[in-house]
Amino acid sequence: MTPSRAAAERDPGLQPERTRLAWRRTTLTGAVVAVLAVKSALHGGAQAPGIVAAALCAALWLGFLGLAHRRIGALAAPRPAALAPRVAATAVLCTVALAVCGAALVL
Fold it and tell me: pLDDT per residue over 49-89, tens digit each?
């Protein structure tokens, strides 16, 4: 069997489903962090720095949600394209920034 024929008959198995579920789990985790950040910011009275950090957490989560939604849609294709480096870097940046904002509100 030639390499091009093997690529055409590729059976992805459960890998796209596992990847889709990983994106969903990460999005859910980001939602929990954003909700806890808002709760922490409003606990004991709303102060401007807390509100700004909570709003930033919510914005970062929405950005990640948009990226995840696009990637989950792309995974529905029989042969999904590779994740672009710029999109991957943006997803990592959103995730790390969300964690930092959430940690800043807790401390």
Answer: 878 888 888 898 999 999 999 999 888 887 888 889 999 99
Report the predicted TM-score, pTM, of the whole model to 2 decimal places: 0.75
DSSP the chain: --HHHHHHT---TTHHHHHHHHHHHHHHHHHHHHHHHHHHHHTTS--HHHHHHHHHHHHHHHHHHHHHHHHHHHTTSSSPPPPPHHHHHHHHHHHHHHHHHHHHHH-
Total Cβ atoms within 10 A of residue 77: 9
Sign of CA dihedral 36, 42, 44, 49: positive
